[in-house]
Amino acid sequence: MQRIVILGTSGSGKTTLARELARRLSLPHIELDALHWEPNWTQAPRPIFRGRVAQAVAQDRWVLDGNYRSASDIVWPRADTIVWLDYSMSVVFTRVFIRTMQRCWTGQELWSGNRERFWTQFFTVNDSIFAWVITSWRRHRRDYPKALRVYAVRGTRIIRLRTPSQTQRWLAGVFDQSMPQVSNAQETVALMS
């Protein structure tokens, strides 16, 4: 595993897992949100964002987290492993709620000086992280199996993890050669079913 993509709905723990994998494997960590967001929650123009992504994944080794469809054609073909954190709605929604409350309370700076704001996150439909979680969770469940199956057939290792405890067992197994790993397209396609 030299070029790893971590996918999952907001709150699934993509960044946490990516950071830990990067640390343990001594790989650079790329966070797509950091490449996407400009100050004042302004999205980087698409060509600029895609250029940043292309430059970041041009390296030989990395762990990347993020779901941006506008860059998947740049990122996914370069990956040797794609990990999908496919957790239940109750898990991701609870995690996002707790994380958002903590960020609002502490004023934690995110990307480009942006901070989550209580009013925006809880009471506006267009900017609500909670509305985003619901719609993106449904879309991922609908679209990822088919999209990832294509990459599995091409030889990319696809790992679909459905619970946090399964993720912890997989992470431990990455460094324990006695644990089985998904290694061929047939096993991978079965996982996507």
In short:
By secondary structure, this protein is an alpha/beta fold. Helices cover 54% and strands 14% of the residues.
Features:
alpha/beta, Rossmann fold, five-stranded parallel sheet, single chain, 193 residues, 9 helices
Which secondary structure elements does this structure contain, and how are they paired or packed?
Blueprint: E1 3-8, H1 14-25, E2 29-31, H2 32-36, E3 37-38, E4 42-43, H3 46-57, E5 62-65, H4 69-75, E6 81-85, H5 89-106, H6 118-123, H7 129-153, E7 157-161, H8 164-174, H9 185-192
Parallel strand pairs: 1-5, 1-6, 2-5, 6-7
Antiparallel strand pairs: 3-4
Q: Briefly, what CATH class?
A: Alpha Beta
Low-confidence spans: pLDDT under 50, at least 5 residues? Answer: 177-190
Proportion of residues in helical segments: 40-55%
Radius of gyration: 17 Å
How many DSSP E strands? 7
Give a structural overview.
With 193 residues, the protein is of the alpha/beta class. It has helices at 14-25, 32-36, 46-57, 69-75, 89-106, 118-123, 129-153, 164-174, 185-192, and strands at residues 3-8, 29-31, 37-38, 42-43, 62-65, 81-85, 157-161. A hairpin with a 3-residue loop joins strand 3 and strand 4.
